[in-house]
Amino acid sequence: MNQDYIQSNPWSIIEEGFDKERVKSSESLFSIGNGAMGQRANFEESYSGPTFQGSYIAGVYYPDKTRVGWWKNGYPEYFAKVLNAPNWIGIDVSINGEPLDLATCTNIKNFKRELNMKEGWYRRNFIATTPNNIEIEVVATRFLNLSHDEVGAIHYQVTPLNADAEILFKPYIDAGITNEDSNWDDKFWNTTNIKSDKNRAFIESHTMKTNFNVCTFMQAHLVYGDTIKDTPHSLNQEELSIGFEFSQKVKKGEKVSLVKYGGYTVDRNHKADKLTEAAHTALDQVSSLGFDGLLEEQKKAWARIWEMSDIAIQGDVKAQQGIRFNIFQLNQTYLGTDSRLNIGPKGFTGEKYGGSTYWDTEAYCLPFYMATKNQEVARKLLKYRYNHLEKAIENAEKLGFTNGAALYPMVTMNGEECHNEWEITFEEIHRNGAIAYAIFNYSRYTQDYSYVPEMGLEVLIGIARFWQQRVNWSAHRNRYVMLGVTGPNEYENNVNNNWYTNYLAKWCLEYTLEQLEYVQQEHPNDYKRILDKTQLGNDETGLWKKVATHMYFPYSEEHGVYLQQDGFLDKDLIRVADLDKKERPINQHWSWDRILRSPYIKQADTLQGFYFFEDHFTNKELEKHFDFYESFTVHESSLSPCVHAIQAAKLGRMEQAYTFYLRTSRLDLDDYNKEVEEGLHITSMAGTWMSIVEGFGGMRVKDGKLCFTPQIPEQWDMYSFKLNFRNRVLKVTVTQEGAEFKIDEGEALEIVVDDKPITLSA
Amino acid sequence: MNQDYIQSNPWSIIEEGFDKERVKSSESLFSIGNGAMGQRANFEESYSGPTFQGSYIAGVYYPDKTRVGWWKNGYPEYFAKVLNAPNWIGIDVSINGEPLDLATCTNIKNFKRELNMKEGWYRRNFIATTPNNIEIEVVATRFLNLSHDEVGAIHYQVTPLNADAEILFKPYIDAGITNEDSNWDDKFWNTTNIKSDKNRAFIESHTMKTNFNVCTFMQAHLVYGDTIKDTPHSLNQEELSIGFEFSQKVKKGEKVSLVKYGGYTVDRNHKADKLTEAAHTALDQVSSLGFDGLLEEQKKAWARIWEMSDIAIQGDVKAQQGIRFNIFQLNQTYLGTDSRLNIGPKGFTGEKYGGSTYWDTEAYCLPFYMATKNQEVARKLLKYRYNHLEKAIENAEKLGFTNGAALYPMVTMNGEECHNEWEITFEEIHRNGAIAYAIFNYSRYTQDYSYVPEMGLEVLIGIARFWQQRVNWSAHRNRYVMLGVTGPNEYENNVNNNWYTNYLAKWCLEYTLEQLEYVQQEHPNDYKRILDKTQLGNDETGLWKKVATHMYFPYSEEHGVYLQQDGFLDKDLIRVADLDKKERPINQHWSWDRILRSPYIKQADTLQGFYFFEDHFTNKELEKHFDFYESFTVHESSLSPCVHAIQAAKLGRMEQAYTFYLRTSRLDLDDYNKEVEEGLHITSMAGTWMSIVEGFGGMRVKDGKLCFTPQIPEQWDMYSFKLNFRNRVLKVTVTQEGAEFKIDEGEALEIVVDDKPITLSA
């Protein structure tokens, strides 16, 4: 844990007291989003202290020309940068002509931020004395509408406390923004039109190269007692920004508020030449509801989300806050309403990593969305990859693969690869397996087998072809081997026979063969169509069988474990527990070659395989592997502790599972990795959800049935969660006394608890 | 072979006919240099066609901020860029007011370039018709003085052939130059002063960051019959350049010439504020000699070089031209007069690779300089690394090594590492071994054992410490292993137990222990001094012994060969001969991951070890290894064919050796690697010399004696070379009939020919 300033609270994230050193961290932690857009918790008024400004629009990116030291054949031309979008939240404030800036105020008191996760709003209040000695109180409330997802609302209230004062509000929108993360300082945005209409203003811009058209807009009015001013006193238009001025003489102790609506209309949803019109329509809708009406809507919309996805924990506020923060952020990032979007690793909270889609989506996020939303949402995530199949085939062709072999990109926005480290881009190919696994996982959980004949089988064939071409026969071992890969543990590069990748490849080949047989029997028309389209022949499937049967897996007789890769035992096997604490995190203390030579594991690798394919192994085997690999794992990836939490729970090691749970659920709140300023770890948050549901709850799907082995950490009195499972909503409640299972409606459901079948009725 | 336009000639490189497509290649091939500076064969007059402009000053570089896609801990801050220096060769020419530009002339006839290697000059002549229909003949001769190495001379002669004409010469110097290779488009040079004095002009500049001060200067005069004009008609001074105008009405058929001297004075040799003064002095000296006098000096200086270093071949002009081109370029690049300088991989012919010093110097260049120059030159190369020892220790510390362990940089200008690919910078550590080997090689050849106690032992201790810390004990193998390295074959990255590196490390440890003992016995005072300085203890040397004794070497019982690295036999072992020719060179056709997975070897790796330590292995062993590895070697490094040539000759496979010899000696002339435009492969040229002396001549030093097993390719009638060996000059002549050995003077010398001892007297 590297920080502990966040107040414990079951439903809110709360910071008290103003500290300039925490501003950037809090800008990340208090971020808000609604799936279509999002923003860091930047101040509305000017702030001259250190800050990281960020507003983001889903799906809008810039293909920043690749920057490398030394070019390698096969590198992609660009890296998709997450774009800082024009700012619509800005409200400059002056008190008797003195600009309000927290960095120059004195006597800052009662500073508080609250992110109310239950209701979906963010509020900041403080009392401060301006350089001209006016003490004021500010209460600024902001939210991004879930129901009108192009618009956000701000209620910015000022009270002069020690004198009457002239309060001037200057709400503005500003396209003069830059990215912190930029390869060549390219200009990312081009602004083509700035205009106003009464108390509304509009900036039309488009991104360079990708040409996404965006209209950034706002509307503002002032409220003082019964007075509502919706005509600005003046208009300031500059080259890249536009703003209004509203001023008001305010009596000591009285409140004046500026209400502002703003946001973006984008050409993903509207015609490019109708964006301003669409903005007008959106503003008409929200202003007819008013700030309070909108906030009511927002509370209801979040209540609907929580109704299904909340996990309640009693007896441990920090644990409760952690899981809700994770669920809240996942829902702020992706709501499953648009199959063109996906779940970026930093969501709408920062620029780092770029792109929007990693294997995180399939390996970590899918189970969360599958169980807490309508299953259509999970299907959309699968379809996203089907839509990119052609580009995955092109990507594989660039690397020399042929005949429809598909390699999905490591990082992408539109299906094209945009990462450029050879050891990752070309070698961290296990991502392909996670995409196949997600198809299996979806079918297993939902029993919706229609995705495979409609779309999934083509994806599986492309992936199977890739694996078959990616291995080679080793005459020496009399087995197929896979050389030059990087497993999930990125602290190893370019290794041979990474067990996880080999195992996943073998499984993909077998699963594809199974699904081919299934589609042939059950959907002969689809089968014919797909065979025609892919030109798949018996010689190929014969080869797949052969590769699957003769795949090589490194194994240590001495330790009784599969080896993470060839040569793992040559390492200097000092356990993490015996490392000097000063050396950690090793990624901040050691040179890259030293990390690579060491046995230390960044995130679950062999154990990731044991997680995916748990039922292929005995508990004894799991235990051996867990004991061996956990002792070398440093968990310097956000995606690591959740898998270990699930497995520790499975092995009945609840204290250890609880420690992993806290680490994953409060990773950002407590800033374990010393980097929360850069944004939140959104995708790993789904792993936190899994830690409870699959870890403590022991939820699995076996033989088509939902099974549980419920446990509870000794620190907790109770926890409960719901699962959307094949048209029923199952509620699971676990206390120290035992577990309770309920369904609300629908057909009876047979589940298995601690290996005993139980039938539930509504 | 990818081009064949260079005319065969024993002493000259000749191009005939003008072809715009060849300009950049010829600019490389006809480059001239004198160890202190050098330049590509750019035209003196303006040329609007494609060209790659380059003038370089030895030791003057710019630390260009590192550019990477993804930063890795340990990367250096900068990459040392070879700098394009201010241009001093420019002479713009106008004919009746029409600028001369070969790209706009018609009827270009008799175009010829000649690089006369025997005498050290470059000439270009042509007849062309200008757009205003004047047919002119141009003969431009240029050379960089060996004896006055700050100055070059140009004699530029124009003859109007079809009419009288007004010829205007505008000699200039120009600091408004840029680099082709630049990470961030930084400004590399800052110009502080431009001035003229009669027919002399000076530009004072310094490099940014490194602050190398340089005065670029020129002097010019016109010669028409008996008329000499040394007062310019006018002066053009601009922000970054300065030039004169000399004009002359010339009668049809008469010659007019512009004679220009120019070059650089640098603060490595003069006080920074006396550079213009030094330039005046240099110009005084050369102008007193005159162009013809200087050229005479140049011929004599080159004759002295050739006297010792020439290899004569009879019966095969291409082979003869190839070896002389190689020897000529090596001498143009480095003459051994300054221990602060070294041998850049492109010499003065291009910018690629940056830096100046690679392991090429020790592994390839040292033997050439040792045998063809005074042995002080080789000693200077060793001393260069001694001077960098402290920085090599700092470099190792950055990567986590301690206690004086030294890692010499992969690429350097001043001892600091400046390369930034993790797989090279951190892992291609065998370079350390080559530096130790060079000390051994020098002592063995010269019997000068004084370098070790004076300087070498400290270097060896630093290197031994590095190896001992870089290995780790593998409990599994009961041996020391070395993980995460890149061998000389850069088509493998981050491998374990690269045989060459392990072997070299073991040898370094043993050699250091031997030398410690030798210094202890023979130079007790030095021993004490060094032990005090390095704080070396018995526990350390004990550990070195243990590591050397228990080093692991991967070996295949099946093939009877040491394996290039762990897992080599897992590869798909298709021989190069069975590869589709269209796929080659693989580095231009395959993605990086495919290259890495393949068995193909860029340059001698295991065989490099057999080259260094030939006497550790039997001929039978060499043959097995050669047959195994040669079949997978693609020789896509310039440093590869020479080692294979030597070993093929050793195995009596003369036809194969001859093929390798041609490939190495004519690599650039015939542009085997399709990249000669970027500059020449200077360091590999020393390998060509070794191919003849050590390959065909079979020269070795064994038991302190020079040994030969002379052979001759059937294509040749004769070849001969000289060796400077312990104060004698030995001349070796080999014909189809036999070999002849002579010494010119000095004590009698016992050599061994075909295992038979022979005593030579002067």
Explain how this protein is built.
The structure is a homodimer of 762-residue chains. Among the domains of chain A are: 169 residues, Maltose phosphorylase, domain 3 (Sandwich), CATH 2.60.420; 267 residues, Glycoside hydrolase, family 65, N-terminal domain (Beta-galactosidase, Chain A, domain 5, Distorted Sandwich). The longest helix of chain A has 35 residues. In chain A, the strands form eight sheets. In chain A, strands 1, 2, 10, 11, 12, 13, 15, 16, 17, 18 and 21 form an eleven-stranded antiparallel beta sheet that branches. A five-stranded antiparallel beta sheet of chain A has the order 9-8-14-20-19, with no helix packed on it. In chain A, strands 22-29-30-31 form a four-stranded antiparallel beta sheet. In chain A, β12 and β13 form a beta hairpin. Chain A is of the alpha+beta class. Chains A and B meet through β23 and α14 of A and β22 and α14 of B. Chains A, B: This is Glycoside hydrolase family 65 protein. Chains A, B: GO terms for molecular function: carbohydrate binding; glycosyltransferase activity; hydrolase activity, hydrolyzing O-glycosyl compounds. Chains A, B: Belongs to the glycosyl hydrolase 65 family. Chains A, B: Keywords: Hydrolase.
Mean of residue pLDDT of chain A? 96
First-residue to last-residue Cα separation of chain A: 44 Å
Radius of gyration of chain A: 27 Å
Q: What summary fits the major beta sheet of chain A?
A: 11 strands, antiparallel
CATH class of the domain at 31-66 and 79-309 in chain A: Mainly Beta
**Poorly predicted ranges of chain A (pLDDT <50, ≥5 residues)?**
none
- The structural class of chain A is alpha+beta
Counted by DSSP, the helix tally of chain A is 19
CATH superfamily grouping of the domain at 31-66 and 79-309 in chain A = Glycoside hydrolase, family 65, N-terminal domain
Name the helicity range of chain A: 25-40%
Biggest interface and residues each: A-B, 49 and 49 residues
**Percent of residues in β-strands of chain A:** 25-35%
Oligomeric assembly: homodimer
Proper CATH architecture of the domain at 31-66 and 79-309 in chain A: Distorted Sandwich
Overall 3D form of chain A? globular
